[in-house]
Write a structure and sequence with these properties.
The chain is of the alpha/beta class. The chain has nine helices and ten strands. The chain folds into two domains: 1-56 and 152-214, Ribulose 1,5 Bisphosphate Carboxylase/Oxygenase, CATH 3.30.190; 59-150, Ribosomal protein L1/L10, domain II (Rossmann fold, 3-Layer(aba) Sandwich), CATH 3.40.50.790.
Length: 289
């Protein structure tokens, strides 16, 4: 995808979207085609670290033991120690915790116990500590570095529909930052598709409360207009040829018709006999005398 196309669409988005009393997020929507979402290999579900912060405040909860308690307190919004897991055996408490935070990080040695208590609520929401995301930590882990990474992390998933959505910035984010995040997310998605770009129907961006704008749509319209003009220029000549073919007989037929015309036959000349002298009347004789 071309940076210039994204920049033009982003400019159009900011100029034509309604203004609100809050800073709206810039969301990326990738519409897919030619996929059977019943097949696991046709689904997208991954975490991608974007190049820039999206402007969203990310809340992280640490499920750790005493070894990581002090490090987690410095950067995490909430900490649940291993000896406090019993408090969350009730459905309401776990559900409330799951909805409260964007990411959960966990100490590796606590994963079996954690899965039993929190798994049924964190799993369906895609918030279970994940080794691919790096959110399962050894006792000597750098928790601050991980939390900084999570602030730029996007979850790209189809979620039972042929569409991938994610936040790529805020309306006051620098255009270059938004463009970089769009390219990172887009390239990550197409690499997971069976036919890559051929499985992409369209790519759109929108503000939270605004309409969606298709990236590159304006350029497509310009190309269509150019093609239309080119066709318009050649049309009269084509019509002229067609009309000539329609209303004028082919030269071969004309030749055949001229050849078929019978030659004019000359009428036989009849010899005129000499006219006989007129008989003289009585009056004529008397006049002579």
């Amino acid at each position: 995808m071309d940076k210039k196309l994204i920049a033009n669409t982003l400019k159009k988005l900011k100029e034509n979207s309604p203004k609100k009393n809050f800073k709206q997020s810039v969301d990326l929507i990738i519409n897919l085609k030619g996929l059977d979402l019943k097949k696991a290999e046709h689904n997208v579900n991954m975490f991608v670290t974007l190049q820039h912060d999206t402007g969203k405040k990310v809340s992280v909860c640490a499920l750790v033991g005493p070894e990581l308690e002090s490090k987690a307190k410095e950067v995490c919004e909430e900490i649940v120690l291993s000896d406090q897991f019993e408090r969350f055996k009730g459905k309401a408490e776990v559900k409330k915790l799951a909805n409260k935070h964007d990411f959960f990080i966990a100490q590796a040695s606590l994963m079996p116990k954690l899965a039993t208590v929190f798994g049924r609520f964190l799993g369906p929401r895609g918030k279970m500590p994940n080794p691919k995301l790096g959110s399962i930590l050894p006792p000597n882990a750098n928790v601050k570095q991980l939390c900084e990474k999570l602030k730029k992390t996007a979850n790209l998933a189809t979620r039972n529909e042929p569409t991938v959505k994610c936040r790529v910035g805020r309306e006051d984010t620098a255009d270059d930052g938004i463009i970089d995040n769009i390219l990172t997310a887009y390239n990550s998605v197409i690499q997971k598709l069976p036919n890559e770009k051929q499985n992409v129907k369209s790519v759109m961006i929108k503000l939270t409360m605004g309409p969606a704008f298709i990236i590159g749509k304006e350029e497509e319209n310009k190309e269509d207009k150019k093609k239309g003009k080119a066709k318009g220029k050649t049309k009269p000549k084509e019509q002229e040829v067609l009309e000539n073919q329609r209303f004028s007989a082919p030269t071969s037929l004309v030749k055949e018709k001229t050849e078929e015309k019978p030659e004019k036959q000359e009428k036989p000349k009849v010899k005129k006999e000499p006219s006989k002298p007129k008989k003289e009347t009585k009056e004529h004789k008397s006049n002579k005398e």
